Amino acid sequence: MGTSTNSMKVLVLCALVAAAAAWPSFVDDLSFQSDVVASSTAHKQQDINHLLDKIYEDTKYPDLQEIAKNFNPLGDTSMYNDQGAAAEVLMKELNDHRLLEQHHWYSLFNARQREEALMLFAVLNQCKVWYCFRNNAAYFREQMNEGEFVYALYVGVIHSKLGDGIVLPPLYEITPHMFTNSEVIDKAYSAKMTQKAGTFNVSFTGTKKNKEQRVAYFGEDIGMNIHHVTWHMDFPFWWQDSYGYHLDRKGELFFWVHHQLTARFDFERLSNWLDPVDELHWDRIIREGFAPLTSYKYGGEFPVRPDNIHFEDVDGVAHVHDMEITENRIYEAIDHGYITATDGHTIDIRQPKGIELLGDIIESSMYSPNAQYYGSLHNTAHVMLGRQGDPHGKFNLPPGVMEHFETATRDPSFFRLHKYMDNIFKKHTDSFSPYTHDDLEFAGMAVDGVAIDGELITFFDEFQYSLINAVDSGESIEDVEINARVHRLNHKEFTYKITVSNSIGSDHLATFRIFLCPIEDNNGITLTLDKERWLCIELDKFFQKVPSGTHTIHRSSKDSSVTVPDMPSFHSLKEQADDAVNGGHDLDLSAYERSCGIPDRMLLPKSKPEGMEFNLFVAVTDGDKDTEGHNGDHDHGGTHAQCGVHGEAYPDNRPLGYPLERRIPDERVFDGVPNIKHVVVKIVHHPEHHD
Ligand SMILES: [Cu+2]
C-alpha cells in the first residue's frame, strides 16, 4: 500500500499536469465560473485525496501549495452563498491569532475547538462551486489545527451538495493513531527510520485476565469505529437547519443506532459466555477500568482509568450531582408525558414523534427544545467518563477515548453508558400501550415460511490497512510500505428465503423487517418475548413488491440496508481518482459513498464454535402505508435502516424498531398475526477459518 519514489514522482507529475490542464490560473483569474471543467467527480476525489494526504505535514502537492500561498478566501466573495460572511469570521480569528495551533490534539467535545472546526465547515458549506470549496480547504489546511481541519473537511463533504459522489477515505488510514495501538505505531516509526517495509499485527487491548477482552474485537473493530464516527458526522449534535436542510428523525435515529450498538454488544457477550452489559450509574462505582494503549499523534497517551472508581466531579465540565438532576428531569418528562420548552409551553411526547424529541434532549442536539433545562446528558457523560483519569486536571492529560466518536466504543464504559441511556428510552417506549392484533395485521398478506439458503457461519478474517500517514516524512527518508494487520469478525454470505402469500388480489408493496433475537440468556434461561424483543438486532429492512399468490422472496445478506461494504483503501481511492483524471474517464464509487452503517462483515454475531440458536424474526407490513409521502425509489441507497437517506426524509413511516419497540405483555397477540413469523436458526463460529 505504500508508494515508491518513482510512482510518487509520477503521481506528483500527473497531479501537476492534471492541475495545469483542468484548473484556471487562480492567481490572475478569480472568475471561479471557469471551474466547471474541473468539477468532475474524479477531480474532486483527487483533490480530497491530496488534501488528506499526510495531514500533519505541509502539503506536498504543488497545486495545493500554490493555493495555500496565494488564495485569498475573501478575494471574491461572490463564490459564497453568504457573500463571504462565514469566511470573514474565520479570517478574523486567523488574523487575530486565536485559532488552535497545529500539532495539538483536537476533540469535538472541546467547545472552542468545535467552534473553530465549525467555522471552517461553515465556509466550505457556503461555497457555490468546487473551486471555492477546494481552495478554502487547501488554504486553511495549512493554517488550522489538523484535527479541526479533517473534521471540517469530512462534515463539509458529507453535507455540502458539492461533496456528492466523493468517497471519504477511511479515517483509520488518515489519522491512524486514533485506531491503532501505540506498540504498532512505534513499529511503524522504526520501519520508516530503518527503511524496512513491514506489516504489524494489532492485538486487541488487554489480556485474558480481563473478561472484557473477550469482546474487545467488537468495540475495537475499525469498521465499527468508522460506523460510529460517521453516524455522528451524518447526524451531528451541533447541526442547525440553517446549514441547509433538516436531519429527519435525528433524535429517534440517535436512540435506534445506539440501542442497536448496545444490543449487538450484548449478542457478542452472549457469544462469549458473558452477562449482558450492566448500566452505568452516577452513584455507583465504575467497575470496568480501561487502558487504551493508544497515543495521540500530538498530545501524549490516551488516559487510563483504573477499575472500581467512584464518579468524580470534573472541573469545568459538570458535578456528578448535575448529571443526576439532568437525569431526573428527563425521567420526569417521560412520566409526565411531556417536555417543557424554553418558553414554558409543553410538548406532548406520548405520541409517535415523542421519541425523536426525547433523543434530541438526551443527546442533546441543537434540536433540543430546552437544552437549558434538560442539559446534555449524553454529551456531558462522554466527557465525564473521558476525564475520570484526571478529573481535576492535575496531570494535564489529554481527552480520554470517550471524548472522540472514533475511539469511544473501545472503552467498555461506552456500552455501560449507552445501556443506561437505552433504559431511559425504554421507560418512554414502555409508556405506550402495546400493539393490538389489528395494529399489527396486514390483511391479505401472510408469511408462510422463513428459511436460510446457505449456512450461518462466522469467522475472523485478516485485514491490512496502511500506516503511512502515521509516520512523518523527511526530505531524505523515503516512504516504505507500512501496514497494520487486524483480525475482524466476518461471516459467510447467505440468503433469506421468505415465502409470502398475497391474497389482496393485486401486487402490493411490502416492507420486510428482519431481526435476530436471542432465545436464552447467558444462564440458559428462556427469555419471554417481552424480554427478548428489546435485545433483538436489526438484520435488514427493505421494501419489495409482492405479486398476487404465493411467492418466495430471495434477499441476500449483502444487500442489507443495515450494513455497508468494506471501504476502498486510501491507496486505492488515490489510484482510481488518478487513473480517471489522467485517462479522462468517469469515476463511479457510488457503492462506497456512505460509510455510515454496520460493516457488512459484522451483520451476524460471532456465536460459539458449537453453534447457538437464535430466533429469526420476520414482520411483513404494508409498504404503501409505510412509504406514503416518499418517492417511489424503494432502495434508498441501501443504507437507510440506521443511517437514513442523505438529505431526505427517512423512508419508513413506522417507528424505528417496529413492531418490537413496544412492550409485549401477551405473546399470543404476535402469534396470532399471519404476517409475522419467527423461526429458529443456528449460527456457528469457525475459529480456525481465516479468510
Ligand atoms: Cu454515539
UniProtKB/TrEMBL annotation:
Keyword field: Signal
Alphabetized Pfam families for the sequence: Hemocyanin_C, Hemocyanin_M, Hemocyanin_N
GO MF term set: oxidoreductase activity
Region (Disordered) residue spans: 625-650
Signal peptide bounds: 1-22
Domain Tyrosinase copper-binding residues, every copy: 411-422
Entry keyword Translocase: no
Regions annotated as coiled coil: none
Protein name: Hemocyanin
Organism, scientific name: Panulirus japonicus
Gene name for this UniProt entry: PjHc_2
